Amino acid sequence: MSKIAIVGSGFGALTTVRELRRRKVAAEITVISPRDELHYLPGSIWIPAGLRTPGQLKIPLANFFARSGVQFVKAAATGLADGGRTVLSEAGSHANDHLVIAAGVRFIRKLPGIEHALVPCEGIVVAEEISRRLTALDSGVVAVGFATNPNEQGAMRGGPMFEFLFIIDTLLRRQGRRDKIELVFFSPAPRPGARLGDRAVDGLLAEMKRRGIRTHLGQKLVRFDADKVVTEAGEIAANLILFMPGVTGPAWLADAGLPLSPGGMIRADAQCRAEGMANVWVVGDIGSYPGPEWLPKQAHQADLQAKAAAANIASALSGADARENFKSELICIVDTLDSGMIVYRTPDRNFVGPRSRAFHWMKRAFETHYLRPYR
Questions:
Q1: 3-state DSSP call for residue 105?
Q2: Which of 44, 86, 92, 199 is the most buried (most CB within 10 A)?
Q3: Spatial distance between the Cα atoms of 22 and 15, rounded to a whole number of angstroms
Q4: What pLDDT was estimated at residue 205?
């Protein structure tokens, strides 16, 4: 029986499992990851407002793996050998005929003083800490911002920071505390969120102005202090700093013999194959792919890449050519706690919907729908 190894247990990895089994691939599947839970980070934006608890966003995967006939190895990957035919991990080595690398990314923590900032996408525990510190803040300034990988401009996650900004604003207004706490949004980019499209950026900046959120844009970051954000053009006093740095690949990629992009991601083609590698497939944030400059690093795009990779593995195992290209598509609802703004983008279309309460409820309903197969 053929062996498929999947590194990672996030969105892309789990969708790969589902798609392989949906296509009746009877291979032995081994998932290698230090985490046997799916952490639904998109829902962590609601933890400070009490709409979600950490327990609701951590989904144990044992039942899903059992139903899917998956062998799970609880260990971190440490490298590859034999041109990808062996995965090295903390729990030993794992042979495969096809390898899917969906291990996610790590945040670039090189900016001096970054320990003074909270990085929301580092985990649900960070959202809990944001909630705790926000509750304890009687007055002052909350600074929210993001940056990118300087060697790969698309290697960022900015969307959640817009959501934390607007949700905190709405929450403080509900609590009657907004007049005592100033909100500031900062970014080295003069027009942050450009991958969403010009109309979306205009809408986001207009929403900040409407809410009285001060902006500090287009100025290179120098460092963080405990009580300020320092840029080349000035300082932002801050009692609480939320910051999303750019992302790069896991450290073990450096010695894995894989083709890497300038930003430290695995170079992959439109079929999600690692360039120049046989039967090595790349899914999700960890990859650097061809496509439009706005190609997102988000769960939905990881799912689309997983579908393509699974289709191509199924074709290869049946003796056919791997010809399935992944679809480039951005779908984002920027939530504000009481409403939301939807952005949709493909190579042929860019749609920005009006702010509506319906989009907030759509986002909550989608979470329930998305997690159902794993519960």
A1: coil
A2: 44
A3: 10
A4: 97
